[in-house]
Write a structure and sequence with these properties.
Number of strands: 5
Structural class: alpha/beta
Distance between the termini: 25 Å
Helix content: 40-55%
Strand order of the largest sheet: 3-2-1-4-5
Number of helices: 5
Amino acid sequence: MYNTILLPVDLNRLDEQRSALEKAVAIAHVNEAVLHVAGVLPDYGMSIVGSFFPEGFEQKMLDEAQDRLTDWCAKSLPKDLEVHHHVLKGTIYEEILQTARRLGVDLIVMTAHRPELKDYLLGPNAARVVRHAACSVLVVRD
């Protein structure tokens, strides 16, 4: 049923991704699916903001995030799954949706933090992914 699964994770809250991780792994095992784990780093926004950072800062940040994600996956995921790591940069929900389209994802499994009253049922990123995804989305509460 699912051949390719995307698990977006918050790189600053990897310890809080356990529920979504367990669901994604279980579904991947049952379907013998490929699991893509992706973390999204924010971009600078306006280009003038980037000028305040030292040269090479962005690449250093991306490399450190990749190392952190790779280490977390090695410790958290079973060895019998085919897993690919992705560190993306940009707006969280846009990067998740673009990556899902690019990879031909059948299912996105993502965590939604406890919403504030203004968010009603889902956080803003999860709500946008659910609303605009071309595939199924499983939202797991942390």
